[in-house]
């Protein structure tokens, strides 16, 4: 068996050139995983689109419908940060089920990776910061509801706080939300996760890795999860235009390796999502997102 990988050809779609959001990165990441020999036909799993009824597990039905028919106001679209299009609609209904499928595969095989996901700024009834539907909250609620897991840890290492996830799941005792982020970064009004670790601007590899490792052990002890959903955002990278930390590529690799290995050593299945990452050079960006999948794939050699 190879590492189970979840992806879909519609994750990237024709998108306005020069937009701040790197929409091509999903397709480029799939291409990179193929080039590395990690993604083949037999370990590729494709999600099907969510229905509005399914998504209402984590979102207001009215909001889902209004997004679906392009009826959001200009103000709502500005906050979301992405221009509406049919392509955007399609990928937005696919990705939450991609994370759910990844989690189900992780429960079966121990580890699985989604080549998208981590839209943690999406709230119950509005989108924000390039996020429309919250795949993390949706997948966690679906798994609890179906009885596939009784306790879940969402371990969010994107450089920005997982505010939407924290708010949607604030009254869900079965799901523990942990966000390790740069304190002086978006969103400026923070939500309250079950555990928040706000990092100083400019933090480097050594202190960062120590914090991630200690925090993971602490929240596993506290939450006793049957599954970890890991947001491996690479916007912690030193040269990321939207991150304010000083983490190197080796630091990202050490982080991802440590999180995956800690979970597996404790026999806790882990599902990874790529989270945030920004760069005008989307090929270089896709290579950064590939790191977590490369580290997971090493377990299957
Ligand atoms: Zn981010």
Automatic annotation (TrEMBL):
UniProt domain Histone deacetylase: residue ranges: 19-290
Transmembrane segments: none
The keyword Metal-binding appears for this protein: no
InterPro entries, alphabetized: HDAC_classIV, HDACs, His_deacetylse_dom, His_deacetylse_dom_sf, Ureohydrolase_dom_sf
Taxonomic superkingdom: Bacteria
Keywords: Hydrolase
Listed SUPFAM superfamilies: Arginase/deacetylase (SSF52768)
Family named by the database record: Belongs to the histone deacetylase family.
Protein name as it appears in the record: Histone deacetylase
